[in-house]
Hints:
This protein is α+β, with helices and mostly antiparallel strands and 156 residues long. The protein contains 8 helices and 3 strands, in the order H-H-H-H-E-E-H-H-E-H-H. The model has no long low-confidence stretch (mean pLDDT 77).
Amino acid sequence: MSVADVLSGALDPVLKKRGFASRDIIAHWSVMAPKPYDEVAIPDKLSWPRGERSAEGATLVLRCVPGHAMAIAHEGPKIAASINRYFGFVLVGAVRLSAEPFTPGSGRKEQKPLQPNQSVIAKVGAQVADVADDDLREALRTLGHALSSRSGRDEP
């Protein structure tokens, strides 16, 4: 069992409490939401009218970056249409705003790749020197450098 399987199993009950039958709307938000709302808003909750799913769709509650609330409120039908087009059926009937703000990038932790030192470059180069295929040799060299920087050691 992979880490992704374990995490998805742990996340599913949390998402179901928020009204999401699956994680598709969250996982593919950047693809389905129209620009610029894919970057300034994120789905928070999906509320179905009085328990049962209906032909009118659910209300999608979005968290947004401060300063974009008016535009999102105005463009709600456009956002809903874009999501429904992605799924191929009426999932979202209305878009509302959450009181909680959204901070883009707050979940991301980008790390700069560490540059290997000269001894690592030499060791990895010697280990892959006999590989005949140029592309494969370069891929192995890149992998060796990445692994050495992740381990925090000077050797691959």
